[in-house]
Every structure is written in structure tokens, then in C-alpha cells.
Amino acid sequence: MSENLLELRNVSKVFRIGGLVFGTRLVAVDDVSLSLPAAEPSILSIVGESGSGKTTLARIILELEHPTSGQVLIDGHPLFEKGGAGLKGRDYYRAVQPIFQNPFEAFSARKRVDKYLFNAALRLKIAQNRKEAREIVAEVLESVGLDLSRVEGKYANQFSGGELQRISVARSLIPRPKLIVADEPVSMIDASLRMNIVNLFLELKEQYKVSFVYITHDLSTAYYVSDYIGIMYRGSVVEYGPSEQILTDSAHPYTELLLDSVPTVDHKWERNVALPDIEVKEFQAQACKFAKRCKYVEAICERTVPPMAQVSADRQALCYRPVDYDPQAALSPRESLESAAAKS
Amino acid sequence: MLRLRELKCHYHTPRGVVQAVDGVSISIQPNEVLGIAGESGCGKSTLLKVLYDYLQPPLRIVSGSYEADFPDGDGKVKTIGPGEIREHWWEFISYIPQGSMSVLNPVIRIENQFFDAVPKRHPLKAKGKEAIRERVAAYLKELELPIEVLKSYPHQLSGGMKQRVLVALGTFLHPQIVLADEPTTALDVVVQKGILLMLIELQQQMENTLVVVSHDMGVHYQISDRLAIMYAGKLVEYGPTDAIFNNPLHPYTQMLIQSLPRVGDRSQRVGISGRPPNLIDPPAGCRFAARCPKAMEHCAHQEPELIQMGPDHFVSCHLYGEVAS
Amino acid sequence: MQRSNPRLTVGIVVLAAFIILGGILPFFSPEDPRSWIKHPRNEPPSAEHLLGTTNLGQDTFWLLSYATQNSLFIGVFVAFFATLIGVFAGLAAGFLGGIPDRVITLLADVFIVVPSLPILILMSSLLQGRASLILISVILIIFNWPWPARQMRSIALSMRERQFVNTARFSGSGTLHILAEEIVPHIFSWAMANFVNTVLVAIATESGLAVIGLSSLEEATLGTMIYWALQHQALLGQRWWWIGSPVVAIILLFIGLFLISTGISSLSAERRGHGDA
Amino acid sequence: MQFAKFVVTRIIAYVLVIWIGITVVFFVPRFMPSDPVESMLGRIMTRGAYMEAEQVEAMRATLTQAFGLEGSLAEQYFGFFQRTFVTREFGPSLSMFPTPVNELIGRALPWTLALLLSSTIIAWIVGNAIGLLAGYKSRWVSSRTLEIIAIFVYPIPYYITALILIILFIHINPIFPLFFSVRGEPFSPEFLSSAIYNSILPALSIVIVGFGWWVLSMKALSSSISEEDFVYFAKLKGAGEGRIMTAYVLRNAILPQVTVLALQIGAIFNGALITEILFGYPGLGTMTYNAVLQADYNLLMGTITISIIAVATSTLIIDLLYPFFDPRIRQR
Q1: D-contacting chains (≥3 CB pairs under 8 Å)
Q2: What is the value of ipTM here, to two decimals?
Q3: Listed residue (B62, D188, B271, D47) closest to A198, CA to CA
């Protein structure tokens, strides 16, 4: 038993777009390190906007994508490894299970939905025979509030999106995994039904002692369900820690911006403010990626990549501000003049 | 500005008649932001199509009336209805679609996408394409959009930028009524906020009417003055946005608001279980009865009336019927 | 829910007629229809000779039946192997990616662009009409696998991104399970339509070669029938039944095959539309 | 950048197509079960020419050289390419000795190009126009009728259409002459009018078949594009029907049709070859056919090589024109 159920060590993923000669590089995941403790089942939310690399990160944990560098460990066992220590094949599928964004895509339109559930029970060797498999399938369906008799023999198009997503959740529970990776599981579902699925995660966490990695762009559901949150921006995890602290007292300016942009029903927005929402095109390897949009930007932010700062015991932020650090002091006299001129 | 009385609009499909808008009465005021909220398939987009006077088979008005106050330029106000409203598209009434859908022609530069939205009798049209291009350039500059956008093709723009272009297109001729259909759905929150603020700012400048359809209650809270809640083709509640959020009357509205998770509040939230009824054969009585925790016996067979519960605050629910009578 | 598909129905009826003509009737032929001077020459159609006789004294009807058999054989043989090779090459390219993908894609593109007829002409001329039907079929396979391969590759690429394949994998399904349960049901009707289409293309190419006398002159196919008719001045002699019967047969057969292939495609498109609704 | 990349990729593909095509042509005679020299010799002898033993030997040597069968396989292969690309010399024609093959091809190629170019362009334009109407106005009776005609015309091969035209307009109704004959000095009015008059039927047979294909593919494309969001929004913009059909549906549907044209060139060329032969049209097809009949190996190799290069070149030209239609490739 390892200390961490999930551990990412300096994981990066670089995609090559186009041919070998003319291709360009896209850094989808940039040196991400995270860990989720194994002591208790917990929910880790990865929050980010489109293109932040959160889905790529989920796909790496699901072995659907090979990391370009870095290591992923489940319960201390490395993934993507052929050797003895690695977690692979059936053992891996028993430990980690996915829930995908669009439930209608997650099941073939030409295969009965219950076949996937029975297959999971039999092929992952959870059940010894069809009778046992039936019992297991009936049980997991019941725990998501569905009845086997209503699911059996039907195709995906005979269910509503909400129902089908519940079946998706039920399927992922069959091998009693330690970790379920859910990639935007409610974004395709009507707002009024979302909370039903999200509540399911909270219930299943207790009932099945399963941890979740919940990938989402929605800060409010992330706050509602999660124990830990990682905020992603352009491939980097810019802030990570217990969700309560991150979302009520954020350390990274980007988290602050995100929070400020959620259309909350608590207070109305200030009108007539300029927002740094227009994406900045250039990717500068030698600077903080958020510098161009950051309202606290200092000269140093445009010059070097900030370190991952330990804000408190279990909180980190990829920023100069949280650390006790005076950027002015680190500048040459000319730079400090420039930065002063830039601000005025 | 716009008045709907007992308006029923149905789709006549081979599978049956879809009663998408079923007896909606509301009047939309000048210089206000009206939000229309509801689940997908509740008829809110159809209602918007009808407001825009885009009635194509199989959609048609079955009964009820719809009229608009049209200032004819001489200081007089003329009442016009379906079939006439479309004569004044873009100058009087405009439409902003959801930009994440591919509503921009992929092979035409942005500056040229405005041509078709300038009506034939508009003086600008007579001046030719070059004049329109100049005006577009000036307008985009006014909206602080980057100048490169003009010569770009849609695939070169981000989702947020495409939506800004669509907002610019919808407000280009300063119409009195702007209809926006899910203008920020599928956009990131930061971008969404920028676009919503842009919409509101333009509405305040032009002092016109903005009707926004969205399924997101948070969006409505932030931008709308009045809010209308639709369920299964019916208007179940409408009133000032603040009144609705402070004192939701209809159980459906209450549940919609209650189900919203909030940052900083971990109290238990529940979704609305079940699904909306089929609009081909909707149930008798209140259409929400089957999902309603407060449903009473007569809800299932008696249709509730729309009753006034406060200043400009209306609800259609049996819970309040007895109070009123 | 089975919607009527008139194209498919008409196509199947026409094809069935040709299968009877070319697949069953030749076994009941009273003679070897190729042999000359068995009958009076240039007879018009009659009860005894349904489509008359040729200038060489052959019964046109039995010759047609025999020719149809050979043409159908070429078509099915070529289509079967071309589709099979194409599907596997395309799947390999799409799923493996990298170098295999590049090589297969390049080869397919080359064979699509290189005109096949000049090369077939070169071959036939060297063999002086002794090219066997099998040899011609093999060449046709070489030129017809790229179309299904190209399409299959793009289908495989999209399949690879389809989540239900991942769902199956996480449900413990192995590669063979996934191929059989997830992928084949999605490509089956497409492969069928392509198969029928390739039957059409193969028969058309062989007959085209035959019409100018460059296919096998020892065997009768629909194309060689036309060739002999042209050689023996059937046109100048106004012996329309001789030249007309293979021409009409080709037209009917091709329209039938085409209706079937588009019928299958529209049927699967309908089903797909239904499935996503 | 994007555009340069596109051009370079296409040119690499072009070179590879020609290389592989010519390599196939090189290897076909070498892997035939019969010895090409002997079979060619046999064919010349059976035509009744009496030859002395040393004459036969000389002929065999000439043929071996003509086939490029001297030396090792690698030398032959290299020599073959040198002859095709460096010296661009296919030697003298054996049947029309001593006219060089190049000269014969130079005479035939313009005919083939004129026929193919004009008939393909006509079929493409007319077919796409009708397909657009059929797809966008799919409820019109006339567009449905045209589609049904296209369904019945498309699957019929070129040579069958050609034969039907020959039967109908040369034998039953002799509107057109039995043999292709062009009169007058080159490019004189008489020459041009007789050339056009004689070319009508061959061109028509290519147009009819191509037409069917373009109608069907354009119909499928434009009816699916008509369902796109941007067409819906164009209606909300208040754009007229004609404007929507041209600026929205056509401009988007025409792009794949250009790509398909590039892919179809090979197939159209195959069809045109047989059409030429059936009509006796004085192009590459008929020349290839005569070369086969007269065992003129040099001429045969020349026409086939030129065919492959011509088809690959026209495909390349269409491909390179494509970005001018599609901004998504041109700009990025």
C-alpha cells in the first residue's frame, strides 16, 4: 500500500502536429506533478478551460495517451511499464476506470448497452459465470438508481443522456476500481440533471471507497464535490491543494480570474470592466504563461518561469506572488525603472 | 414593444404535432433585458424563432397573436405582426446565434459576412460593398476588436472571437430588438463573462431590448432585468429577475435555483429527477406535475392559470390558485 | 423499423435475374456456347434461338449466359480480394499510424492516380490475347484495393477516437473482441457497398479491355462478345441482336449493381441517423 | 508557410507517382511469362515477312535493345529512366520507321488533350450545376427527374455509351461519318469545323458518363451542406435563395469536387482511351492501340509513359489550384 493512490511526477505531453518535416510542437501537458493521498477515498478536480490540457491529462492517467516524459503511478505501481513493477492489463483495468463526456459516444449504437456491463464483469474476471455477472450488474445499476430489467436488451438511443451517463457510471463500478477518471461527465447533460450525477459521485465515494479524478471546466460543481483541486492553464497546473482553500482564498491570479468569471447568483458583476479574456497567441517558453493576462504582472514574470511555490503545507501555486518575494529587489535598476514606468 | 397573447406554435412533423410553444402570453418592454430560461427542449429556442418571425414549415402559428410596435420613421408607431416583422430584419430586430456552432460561412472573410445582413432597402446597401466594409471596420474598431479579424476566415478565430463577431453583426445596424440564442453556451467562463458584459454594455448604449435565451440561471442572474421560465412549451413563471431569485414561486423555478451549486457553499444540492414530457402528447393538467414534489391531486388533470403574485410577477401553479381566489 | 428502400429492391431484383442468367443457366446449356457453326448463321430471334444466332453460328442467348458467368466471376473475384486487402490495409494504416500508415497511404494514392488501362494494354499486348481471366483479375485487384483502403483509413482514424472502443477496452475486451464487436458492425455495410461497387468497376474494366480485343480472346465475357460482334461487322450488317444483347446486359447489370451499392449506403446512413437520434 | 508545405508535399507525391508508374511499366515486360522479344519477333514473322537467319538475329538484337533488355537489371532500370527523363527519346517507331516516336506522340497528344479537357470541363460544370440544383432544391420535380436520369447514366461505362452513340447516330441515323476524317490545312476554318464535327460524338460519350457522376456527387454534397448551420443563419440574415445557393452552398460544395476531379483524372483518362479507339479518334488511345496491333514496341512504351506523366501532371495541376478555392489551406 503506497502513500499515494495517484501520483504524477513531472508529466509532460508534447504533440507533433503535421508531418515530420514541417510539424509544429504543441505542449499539451507541461511538467505536471500531482498526488492524491490513498488514506481515504477522495475526489480530485482538475479544472481548466478548453485547451488547458486537462483532458490530455485524464487520457494519460487512462493510458490512452503516452506521456512524452514523466511518470504516472497508481498505488505506487508505475503505468506504461512492461516490467514487473508496472501495473498493466487486467490488473490496471481493475484499478482504474473511465467515465467519458458524451454517454452516447461511450457506447456503440450497434451493440446493446447491457453487453458492456456483462462483458466488464466476465472479461475482467470479476464474475465466474453469467449468474454471478447478473448479480454484480444488477447491484451496480441499483447503486446508480436504475433497474437491470429496464436496462437489459436496449440500445444507447433508447435512453436519455442522464440515464445513459448513470449506466456509464455503473459500468465503471463493476471491477470495484480504486480510481475513476471522469472526463467532463456532466457537460453534455441538462443543467437540472447535473447535480444528480454529481451527487452520485459523493455517494459512491463512501459506498464503494473509490476515488475520483473529476475533469471539469465548472468551478462550482468542482467546489461542491471535491476534496482537492488542481487548476490548469495552458498545460500547467498553476494551483493545487484542498478545494476549500483554493476556491475561497486563491493564490494564483488565474484562479482569481476564473472565480471572478463564474456567473454566480450571489452577487452581480461589476459592469464596464475590461477583462483579459482575449487569448494571447504567442507561447513563450521563457516566461509565465499567464503574464500577458495577469493584472499583477511584474517584469520578472515576463522573463522567467515562476517556481512552484509552497503556499502552505499542502498548497502549491505556480506564481511569484504567494512566496515571500519582492520582485523589485530582484530586478536590475534599469528594469525596476521600466516596470515602474510601465505601471504608471 | 413586443406583445404575445396566448400564442401557440406547433411543428407539424410526420410523427405528430409537436406543441413547442403552447399558449404563451408576455409583453416585452423597450429598454429591458429579458431572459428566457428552461431545460433543453422546453421550447425556448422555438419561441425565439417565432419572435424573430422566422416561421418555416413545419413550424407555424396555430392560434393567438403576436405583434410588435414599429416606429415607421415619421415619429409614428405602427403595429406589425408575423410576416411583416421579417421585412425589418437587422434594422429593427436582429438575431445572435450560438457562435460555437458553425454559423459563419467557412470560405468567406469576416468583413464580407456582413453583406447579407444589410437589408436591400438600407441606404448602405446602395453604396456598395466597399462602403459596407468600411462601416464594418469602423464598427469593429468601436467594439475594440482586433483589426486582423476583418480579413480573417472563421477557422482562424477562437470561439470567443467568433461570438464577438456575431454580437457585432447583430448590433451593426442598431436594431431596437436584439434576440440572442444561447450566446455563450460552450464558451469558457472567462470568455463568457467578456461577451455577456459586451452584450449588456451595447444594450445600455443603444437603450434597446435584449432577449437572451439561456439554460444557465447564473447568466440570467447576471444580465437580465426580467426573467421568464419556460417548461414544456409553457411559461410557468415570469417577473423581475431579483424577485424571481429572492422569492421563486413555481416549484420548478425553486428547484432550478436550488440545484445551482455555489462556490463557498457545500450544502446538499439536488437535481430535478425525471425528464420533461414529450411535446407531441403532453400530459393533461400541469405539465410539471409528474416531477413536482408539491404536486396535488388536481394538478394532474387541471391546467393552472397564469396569476399575478406581485408587481409584474406572474406564476402558473395551483399552489397559488387558492390563495388568489 | 424497416423503411422501404426502392433502390435496393430494384437493384436486387435485377441482380437476381443476372445471377440466374449467369450463375445457374450455363449448367443447362445444351452445348458449349463458344463452339462455332452449331446453328444457322445470323438468325433473328425465334422460339428456338431466343436472341438469334451470331455470324459464327452460335446461339446468342446461351453465349450471353456463358459470358455473364465469366464476367460475374471476374467481378466477384476482384471485388472480394480488393475489398479484403483494402479493408485490412486501411485498418492497418489507420490504427497503426506512423511508418505503415505513410507507406500504405502513399501506395494507395499512387495507384489511384496512375492510369491502369495503359498498363493493362501493355500486358495484354505482350501476351497477345492469351492473358487468362485470373491474370487480368489479379491486375484489377492491384488497381482496385486503394479506394477501399483510403476510405477505411479515414474510418479507422475516426474509430480510433471513438470512445466506445475505449469503453470496451476498459471492460476487459481484447483487440479481437473489439474488432469483432465494436468495429466490424460499424464498417460492415460500408464494406458491402464497396464490394458491390468494385464488382461493377472490375467487370467494366475487363469488358473495356475486351471490347478492344485485349482481354482473353479464348474465353467469352460480355466484353469479348461485343468485340467479336464488332470484328464481324455486326454494326454494318445491322445485326442488332448480336451486338445489342451484351450491350443491354451490361447496362442493366451495372444499373442493378449501382442501385444496390447506393441502396446499401443510404440504408446504413438511415440507420446511423436513427441510432444517433 | 502552410501553402509552401502543401506545395512541397504535392510535388513529392507527384514525383513518386511517376516513379512508381514508370517502374511498373519497366517491370511488366520483365515479369511476363513469355519472352517479349520472342513474342514480338513471332508476331512480326507471322505477318508474312520473310527473313534470313541473320536478319532475324539482327532483328532480335534491335528488339532486345529497344526493350532495354541489355545488361543487368539495375543497368536496364537506370537506362530506362535515363531514356525517359534525360534524353526523352523513345527511339524510332517500328511500324512507321523511321519516324521518331516523339514526333508521333507530339501529333497525337494535342488531340487527346483537347478532347479530354473540353469534355471533362463541360461535364464538370454542367453536372455540378445540375447537382447543386438537385441538392438544394430537392423538392423540385425537375431536379428529381434529373437525378434519376443521372442514376441510370452514371454506372454505364464509357465504351458502352460510345457504342450506343455509334449505333444511334452513325448506323441508324447516319448524322455523323463512319470514319474519323479531318480535312484541310491545320487550323484552317475547314480543318477546325471538320475536327469539331468529327469530335462531337466522342466528346459527348465522355460528357454523358462524367455528367452522371458529377450530378450525383454534387447532389449529395449540396444537400448535406444545405443542412449546415451557416446556411440556416444565412436565411436568418435574409439572404435571397440565389445568393444562398451560390455564396454559401456552392462555394463550400465546390471544394471537395475539385479534389474528386483530381482523383478521377486517371479513371476519366482510361475511359477516354477506349472511346478514342472505338471512334478512331486520332489521339493517344488510338495510337496506343495501333502500336499494339502492329507490335510497335517503341511507340507503345512511349505512349504509355507519356500517358502516366500526363495524368500525374494534370492531377498535380488541379491539386495546386485547390488552395485558390479553399482559404483553409491557403492561409494559416
Answers
A1: A, B, C
A2: 0.84
A3: B271
